[in-house]
Amino acid sequence: MLNSIEALEAIYGLPHDRAVRKQIPFLNEDYQAMVRASPLVIISSVGPDGMDGSPRGDTPGFVRIVDERTLAIPDRPGNNRIDTLRNVVLDSRVSLLFIIPGIGETLRVNGTAQISAEPGLLESFAVNGKPARTVMLVTVQAAYFHCSKAIVRSDLWNPQKHLERSALPTAGAFHKRLNDGQFDAEAYDREAPVRVRDSLY
Length: 201
Known about the structure:
By secondary structure, this protein is an alpha+beta fold. 32% of the residues lie in helices and 28% in strands. This is Pyridoxamine 5'-phosphate oxidase family protein.
C-alpha cells in the first residue's frame, strides 16, 4: 500500500501548470456561470460521527451567488436526518460539486459553511409560498473546474445508456428488505409520485 506523498508523486508526477492555475480563491465570471446553470450540487461534509455526501437539487440557479466569495444554498424538506447540517454545525468544512446536465465539466468549490435560520433569508428562497427550512452560507476558499474525462468515461449523458427504473429495486423494495419484509412496498411505491410532488417544498 502507498503511504506517502512521495510514493504517490513517483507514480503520478506533478500536475500540469494549467491544473494548478485553474484553482482560484473566489468565483470568477466563468465559475459563476457554472453555478447559475447547475440544477444539482453534491455537498460533502465531515463531523465527529463520520463523513457525508448529500445531493441538493432544484431549478438552475437555486444556489444563490451572494458575491464572488459567498454562496447561499437553501435546504428543503427531506428525511430529517440532516446529516450534512449536523456536520456543518460541528465542523464547518465543506466541498461542493456542481453538475450540469449535458456538460462534461463540473465545478468544485471548497470552503467553510454556516447554517442560517434568519426569517428574511429563508423567505427570500420561498417557492410556492414555502420558505427554505434553513440556508447554508458557504465561504469560498478554493474553486476550480474539473475536466470532462470522468463524464466522458462514464457516458453519463448518453440517453441510450440510461437505465429503465425497473432495472433496480424500487424505494419500497429497499424499505421492505431493510425492515425484514415487514413493510408494504407496493403501497409505498404506488403513493410515491403524489407524496414526492406534495413534499418538494
